[in-house]
Amino acid sequence: MTHADTLATALIVDDTGRVVGVTARRHGEDLAYRARGAVVLTTGGFADNEEMLADHAPHLLAHGRVSDGLDDGSGIRMAAALGAATRRMGVVELALTALPALAVRGMLVNAHGRRFVNEDVYPGLFSVAAVLTQPAPYWVIVDEEGFEAVPERERWGVVPRFVSETLGELEGELGMPPGALESTVGTYNTHAARGQDPYFHKDAHWLRPLKGPFAAIDPRAGFHQGGRPSAGAGTGVAGFTLGGLRTTVDGAVLDVSGTVLPGLFAAGRAASGIHGEGYVSGTSLGDGTFFGRRAGAAAAAGLRSAP
Ligand SMILES: Cc1cc2nc3c(=O)[nH]c(=O)nc-3n(C[C@H](O)[C@H](O)[C@H](O)COP(=O)(O)OP(=O)(O)OC[C@H]3O[C@@H](n4cnc5c(N)ncnc54)[C@H](O)[C@@H]3O)c2cc1C
Prior knowledge:
CATH class of the largest domain: Alpha Beta
CATH architecture of the largest domain: 3-Layer(bba) Sandwich
Number of helices: 8
Number of domains: 2
Strand order of the largest sheet: 8-9-11-10
Structural class: alpha+beta
Number of strands: 15
CATH superfamily of the largest domain: FAD/NAD(P)-binding domain
Strand content: 15-25%
Bound molecules: flavin-adenine dinucleotide
Shape: elongated
């Protein structure tokens, strides 16, 4: 049976140190649940907990959150109160609202007009490279041919913030140091004419010299799918946390000395899962489903083998 509108507040431990249940609150009423076998924490990450973000992943504080608003890290904190270890608490998923189809046909530059990444990588990678290592704001620079090559329905409402015949004018509009963009695009074009990108190794398929008129697209405008702004509108970045409780592959929560905390399992974003740096879409749901199933099976197996 599922009890909705019920907030787990703490783990209950017996005299032997085994987790045997949770305390909870529902509509102002305090409750206690006895676990038949074990407790499996699937309470999500901590993207919505400002204090935890400040402690562990402060780079997310300024940006939008990809969450349902209830990822308050409560499960992680309940387990940590029993001595559970956490892992990779500073690792985050970040999404810069730079349309990959446009970035790859032009370039992604930092506030100084410099490229810093291969634009044909997975967007999670260029987003982390931008937000964690480069001065903001970031701009997608594309020429008319590159912009028109993406059908309007696939542009997700993205329009240029500035358009200019020359790079000199454009870098002025963007507040970049004089000559910065001219130098970056000039170097890019020299190599692109030979089908090369010796700095970042973008695939030759996407390489050609860019020529005016040029457009600068601002990720802070967000995407506008169905006319509604996306989560990225604002700073141009939104994300969620990837760190969490340290577990075995079967979801058993480990304490700080690497010993299993008896009766306690975790899966999904409450656990640290498979992520290091370099997020890949789908692996969050995978962490929840694949490892959630393993955690559930292990908890049930313990129940079957219980005396
Ligand atoms: C717009 C959007 C797009 C996304 N796209 C993708 C994608 O393409 N691929 C991908 O892999 N992932 C994607 N994600 C991320 C993915 O949805 C989440 O990482 C995943 O849902 C995490 O699953 P979870 O079960 O660990 O936690 P959640 O889905 O966050 O569920 C946790 C639940 O626990 C509840 N809860 C929290 N604390 C308590 C408590 N103390 N007591 C009781 N209940 C509690 C919460 O209310 C929530 O219902 C996306 C997320 C969003 C918001």
